[in-house]
Design brief:
It contains two helices and four strands, in the order αββββα. A hairpin with a 7-residue loop joins strand 2 and strand 3. By secondary structure, the protein is α+β, with helices and mostly antiparallel strands. It has a two-stranded antiparallel ribbon with strand order 1-4. Strands 2-3 form a two-stranded antiparallel ribbon.
């Protein structure tokens, strides 16, 4: 299980549309307790590195 950012940026996998995250209590962010959402590998699908970099460059160029 990992967050959406970890799946997208480090493992080159995207979260399937409509997937629900698993809520975990995150008490490492100070005195306030927050929820952190993670996704299972079954909620992801693999993308090629070329497609990932192309999408990232397209997003950057639009800014």
């Amino acid at each position: 299980m990992a967050s959406m950012e970890i799946w997208n940026q480090k493992m080159y996998r995207w979260i399937k549309k409509g997937s629900k995250g698993i809520a975990l209590i995150d008490n490492t962010s100070g005195p306030k307790t927050k929820l952190r959402y993670v996704f299972d590998v079954g909620d992801t699908y693999k993308v090629s590195r070329c497609l990932f970099y192309f999408q990232k460059l397209t997003y950057i160029s639009r800014l």
